[in-house]
Amino acid sequence: MKIKELLKKQNYNFNDLCEIMDILRGENGCPWDKAQTHKTIRKNLIEETYEVAEAIDKEDYTLLCEELGDLMLQVVFHSRMAKEEKQFDINDVCDGVCKKLIIRHPHIFSDTKADTPEEVLKNWEEIKKQTKVNTRKSALDGIPPSLPSLMRAEKAGKKAYEAGITGRTALDAVDDIINKAEKVKENSENKPEAERILGKILFETAYAAFAMGIDAEEALGKEVDKFIEKHRNDKG
Questions:
Q1: Which of 46, 36, 48 is nearest to 81 (CA)?
Q2: Rounded to two decimals, what is the model's pTM?
Q3: What is the mean pLDDT of the chain?
Protein backbone atom coordinates (compact mmCIF):
# COMPACT_ATOMS: atom_id res chain seq x y z
CA MET A 1 0.00 0.00 0.00
CA LYS A 2 2.86 2.37 0.83
CA ILE A 3 4.40 1.92 -2.62
CA LYS A 4 1.07 2.68 -4.35
CA GLU A 5 0.65 5.83 -2.27
CA LEU A 6 4.17 6.97 -3.12
CA LEU A 7 3.62 6.40 -6.83
CA LYS A 8 0.55 8.66 -6.78
CA LYS A 9 2.49 11.64 -5.42
CA GLN A 10 3.62 14.53 -7.62
CA ASN A 11 6.08 15.96 -5.09
CA TYR A 12 8.05 14.36 -2.31
CA ASN A 13 9.49 15.52 1.02
CA PHE A 14 12.05 14.35 3.58
CA ASN A 15 9.60 11.91 5.19
CA ASP A 16 9.01 10.32 1.79
CA LEU A 17 12.76 9.88 1.34
CA CYS A 18 12.94 8.04 4.66
CA GLU A 19 9.92 5.95 3.69
CA ILE A 20 11.50 4.96 0.37
CA MET A 21 14.72 3.97 2.15
CA ASP A 22 12.70 1.82 4.57
CA ILE A 23 11.13 0.06 1.58
CA LEU A 24 14.49 -0.45 -0.18
CA ARG A 25 16.02 -1.94 2.98
CA GLY A 26 12.86 -3.85 3.92
CA GLU A 27 12.02 -7.53 3.60
CA ASN A 28 10.99 -7.28 -0.05
CA GLY A 29 13.37 -4.47 -0.88
CA CYS A 30 16.24 -4.02 -3.31
CA PRO A 31 18.93 -6.76 -3.13
CA TRP A 32 21.73 -4.21 -3.63
CA ASP A 33 20.47 -1.74 -1.03
CA LYS A 34 19.90 -4.52 1.49
CA ALA A 35 23.45 -5.82 1.01
CA GLN A 36 25.15 -2.51 1.89
CA THR A 37 26.90 -1.68 5.15
CA HIS A 38 28.32 1.54 6.59
CA LYS A 39 31.72 0.59 5.19
CA THR A 40 30.59 -0.44 1.70
CA ILE A 41 28.98 2.95 1.02
CA ARG A 42 31.55 5.02 2.91
CA LYS A 43 33.22 6.02 -0.36
CA ASN A 44 29.86 7.11 -1.78
CA LEU A 45 29.45 9.59 1.07
CA ILE A 46 32.86 11.12 0.37
CA GLU A 47 32.24 11.31 -3.38
CA GLU A 48 28.83 12.94 -2.93
CA THR A 49 30.35 15.53 -0.59
CA TYR A 50 32.90 16.51 -3.22
CA GLU A 51 30.20 16.71 -5.88
CA VAL A 52 28.28 19.14 -3.66
CA ALA A 53 31.46 21.21 -3.31
CA GLU A 54 31.91 21.20 -7.09
CA ALA A 55 28.36 22.47 -7.63
CA ILE A 56 29.01 25.27 -5.12
CA ASP A 57 32.23 26.25 -6.89
CA LYS A 58 30.40 26.32 -10.22
CA GLU A 59 27.54 28.34 -8.70
CA ASP A 60 25.23 25.90 -10.48
CA TYR A 61 22.09 25.82 -8.34
CA THR A 62 20.31 23.18 -10.39
CA LEU A 63 23.28 20.88 -9.91
CA LEU A 64 23.61 21.89 -6.24
CA CYS A 65 19.99 20.93 -5.58
CA GLU A 66 20.57 17.52 -7.15
CA GLU A 67 23.87 16.89 -5.37
CA LEU A 68 22.49 17.93 -1.97
CA GLY A 69 19.74 15.36 -2.53
CA ASP A 70 22.37 12.69 -3.20
CA LEU A 71 24.25 13.70 -0.05
CA MET A 72 21.01 13.66 1.98
CA LEU A 73 20.37 10.15 0.69
CA GLN A 74 23.67 9.03 2.21
CA VAL A 75 22.65 10.44 5.61
CA VAL A 76 19.29 8.66 5.43
CA PHE A 77 20.95 5.43 4.23
CA HIS A 78 23.43 5.34 7.13
CA SER A 79 20.70 6.27 9.61
CA ARG A 80 18.46 3.45 8.40
CA MET A 81 21.28 0.92 8.78
CA ALA A 82 22.00 2.23 12.28
CA LYS A 83 18.32 1.83 13.14
CA GLU A 84 18.48 -1.83 12.07
CA GLU A 85 21.50 -2.22 14.34
CA LYS A 86 19.50 -0.58 17.18
CA GLN A 87 22.09 2.20 17.48
CA PHE A 88 20.12 5.31 16.43
CA ASP A 89 17.71 6.48 13.74
CA ILE A 90 17.21 9.58 11.57
CA ASN A 91 15.15 11.25 14.32
CA ASP A 92 18.07 10.88 16.72
CA VAL A 93 20.32 12.49 14.11
CA CYS A 94 17.95 15.43 13.70
CA ASP A 95 17.41 15.70 17.46
CA GLY A 96 21.14 15.81 18.12
CA VAL A 97 21.95 18.46 15.56
CA CYS A 98 18.98 20.65 16.57
CA LYS A 99 20.05 20.56 20.22
CA LYS A 100 23.62 21.35 19.18
CA LEU A 101 22.52 24.38 17.15
CA ILE A 102 20.40 25.73 20.00
CA ILE A 103 23.15 25.24 22.61
CA ARG A 104 25.85 26.75 20.38
CA HIS A 105 23.80 29.82 19.44
CA PRO A 106 23.13 31.35 22.88
CA HIS A 107 23.12 34.80 21.25
CA ILE A 108 19.92 33.70 19.46
CA PHE A 109 18.28 31.29 21.90
CA SER A 110 19.52 32.81 25.17
CA ASP A 111 20.89 36.09 26.48
CA THR A 112 24.55 35.84 25.41
CA LYS A 113 25.77 38.77 23.30
CA ALA A 114 27.59 38.24 19.99
CA ASP A 115 27.39 41.01 17.40
CA THR A 116 30.08 39.88 14.95
CA PRO A 117 30.92 36.61 13.16
CA GLU A 118 34.21 36.53 15.09
CA GLU A 119 32.41 36.68 18.44
CA VAL A 120 30.03 33.94 17.32
CA LEU A 121 32.93 31.66 16.37
CA LYS A 122 34.70 32.35 19.66
CA ASN A 123 31.54 31.45 21.61
CA TRP A 124 30.97 28.38 19.42
CA GLU A 125 34.44 26.99 20.14
CA GLU A 126 34.16 27.67 23.86
CA ILE A 127 30.75 25.98 24.11
CA LYS A 128 32.04 23.11 22.00
CA LYS A 129 34.84 22.51 24.51
CA GLN A 130 32.37 22.56 27.40
CA THR A 131 29.69 20.32 25.90
CA LYS A 132 31.48 17.86 23.64
CA VAL A 133 32.39 14.54 25.22
CA ASN A 134 36.18 14.59 25.22
CA THR A 135 37.94 11.23 24.99
CA ARG A 136 40.99 12.68 23.27
CA LYS A 137 44.39 12.40 24.90
CA SER A 138 46.05 14.99 22.69
CA ALA A 139 45.12 18.32 21.10
CA LEU A 140 46.01 16.68 17.80
CA ASP A 141 43.48 13.87 18.17
CA GLY A 142 40.25 14.12 16.19
CA ILE A 143 41.72 15.02 12.80
CA PRO A 144 40.08 12.51 10.40
CA PRO A 145 42.68 10.45 8.46
CA SER A 146 40.25 10.42 5.52
CA LEU A 147 40.60 14.18 4.96
CA PRO A 148 42.60 15.28 1.91
CA SER A 149 46.22 15.40 3.08
CA LEU A 150 46.66 19.13 2.48
CA MET A 151 43.55 19.95 4.51
CA ARG A 152 44.61 17.51 7.22
CA ALA A 153 48.07 19.11 7.41
CA GLU A 154 46.50 22.55 7.77
CA LYS A 155 44.23 21.35 10.59
CA ALA A 156 47.14 19.68 12.38
CA GLY A 157 49.21 22.86 12.19
CA LYS A 158 46.31 24.98 13.39
CA LYS A 159 45.54 22.70 16.35
CA ALA A 160 49.21 22.55 17.31
CA TYR A 161 49.47 26.34 17.24
CA GLU A 162 46.28 26.92 19.22
CA ALA A 163 47.33 24.36 21.84
CA GLY A 164 50.71 26.03 22.27
CA ILE A 165 52.55 22.97 20.94
CA THR A 166 54.26 25.21 18.39
CA GLY A 167 54.65 28.95 18.09
CA ARG A 168 56.10 28.94 14.61
CA THR A 169 55.16 31.80 12.29
CA ALA A 170 54.40 31.78 8.57
CA LEU A 171 57.90 33.12 7.88
CA ASP A 172 59.43 30.29 9.91
CA ALA A 173 57.59 27.82 7.69
CA VAL A 174 58.65 29.65 4.52
CA ASP A 175 62.32 29.53 5.64
CA ASP A 176 61.99 25.77 6.16
CA ILE A 177 60.46 25.40 2.69
CA ILE A 178 63.41 27.24 1.11
CA ASN A 179 65.95 25.12 3.00
CA LYS A 180 64.23 21.86 2.18
CA ALA A 181 63.90 22.77 -1.51
CA GLU A 182 67.70 22.72 -1.75
CA LYS A 183 67.74 19.28 -0.14
CA VAL A 184 65.33 17.99 -2.79
CA LYS A 185 67.89 18.94 -5.42
CA GLU A 186 70.62 17.14 -3.52
CA ASN A 187 68.48 13.98 -3.24
CA SER A 188 66.84 14.01 -6.66
CA GLU A 189 68.20 10.51 -7.41
CA ASN A 190 67.14 9.12 -4.02
CA LYS A 191 63.40 8.61 -4.38
CA PRO A 192 62.57 7.64 -0.75
CA GLU A 193 64.51 10.61 0.64
CA ALA A 194 63.10 12.99 -1.98
CA GLU A 195 59.59 11.78 -1.09
CA ARG A 196 60.22 12.43 2.61
CA ILE A 197 61.55 15.94 1.99
CA LEU A 198 58.77 16.83 -0.43
CA GLY A 199 56.25 15.66 2.16
CA LYS A 200 57.81 18.07 4.67
CA ILE A 201 57.66 20.89 2.11
CA LEU A 202 53.97 20.22 1.51
CA PHE A 203 53.31 20.20 5.25
CA GLU A 204 55.23 23.44 5.76
CA THR A 205 53.30 24.99 2.87
CA ALA A 206 49.99 24.07 4.52
CA TYR A 207 51.25 25.50 7.83
CA ALA A 208 52.38 28.74 6.19
CA ALA A 209 48.97 29.07 4.53
CA PHE A 210 47.19 28.63 7.89
CA ALA A 211 49.49 31.15 9.57
CA MET A 212 48.75 33.68 6.80
CA GLY A 213 45.00 33.12 6.97
CA ILE A 214 44.95 31.40 3.58
CA ASP A 215 43.01 28.21 2.81
CA ALA A 216 45.70 25.92 1.37
CA GLU A 217 43.17 23.59 -0.29
CA GLU A 218 41.47 26.50 -2.06
CA ALA A 219 44.78 28.09 -3.05
CA LEU A 220 46.00 24.87 -4.62
CA GLY A 221 42.63 24.28 -6.28
CA LYS A 222 42.80 27.69 -7.97
CA GLU A 223 46.27 26.96 -9.32
CA VAL A 224 45.16 23.56 -10.62
CA ASP A 225 42.24 25.25 -12.39
CA LYS A 226 44.62 27.78 -13.96
CA PHE A 227 46.99 25.03 -15.08
CA ILE A 228 44.20 23.00 -16.68
CA GLU A 229 42.78 26.05 -18.44
CA LYS A 230 46.21 27.09 -19.73
CA HIS A 231 47.07 23.67 -21.12
CA ARG A 232 43.59 22.40 -22.01
CA ASN A 233 44.23 22.54 -25.75
CA ASP A 234 47.89 21.48 -25.70
CA LYS A 235 48.56 18.37 -27.76
CA GLY A 236 51.61 17.30 -25.79
A1: 36
A2: 0.72
A3: 91
